[in-house]
Amino acid sequence: MNELPVGRRVAQWRVRRNMTQQQFADRLGKSKSWVDKVERGVRRLERVSNLREVAETLRIDVEVLLGARPARPTPVVAGVDGIRTALARYHLPGTDRPPLAEEVVTRLAHAEQSYRHARYSALLMLLPGLLDDVREARAAHPGTTDGLLVSVYALIALVLIKVDQGELAWLAADRGMSVALATHDPQMAGTATVPLTQALRSRGRRRSALDAAVAAADRIGAHEFGVGFSATVALRGTLLLQVALAAADGRDGRLAHQSLDQAEAISRDIGTDGGGRAGGAVAFRHDQKGEGRGCGRR
Length: 298
Description:
The chain is mainly α. The chain has helices at residues 6-16, 21-28, 32-40, 48-58, 62-65, 75-87, 101-116, 120-140, 146-162, 166-183, 186-202, 206-221, 229-249, 253-270, 282-291. The model is unreliable at 272-298 (pLDDT under 50).
């Protein structure tokens, strides 16, 4: 590692942080051409200010960037590796005492609280075990814990997005969507769609995110609900915010404002909190209130 030119080291760390050259350039306030020249060694990083800025964007010390000392695994890196390993476990060993659904619900609530307080490093370490346990509980009680598994996959995806692991977040969100669609429950599918759209948007797949959010919102809008109606409508409002965000990414102002208007109407009708959890949607609502302002509306 120490023998590598600085430009090659920049390229390696950029790839490890799951950034394209364009995304890296945008965060630095530089052009893609500038990044490409640095990585190929055509342009040298001679100014200390540039070195510090590049290192901060890559979330490493300048000494690591220069090869003066090796990088130590951070809690985030270790946590991401743990989640990657858990997602790759397709066969769990059987157990005589699978976790009780009530225990998993309590742990999920604690994990969601950690997410709200941005304790991402600690949460990344907890989620692999939680995923294994909810999968074991589902194997022991098929059909009764589908919602829990969808919510755990959703939370994993959201945390991975926060630490710039968009591709892995997409995998987790896709797993949750597969479970949700198999239940033929529009509300569960809507819950799974929220992190899926965010993961797609984080990777620049705006069109796919928009299509998924529109389809999920339409499914909820066309379905008749009894118990938990207000929570379901609140979830529809969350999906409409996702539609607005994806539309804004694509510079479709008309659709963005139209979707925001519908979401605002829902908020006025049932209140900001929606009167219920709406499956795992409570974990998302914290993000949506902040992201929605990016479309120029409150």
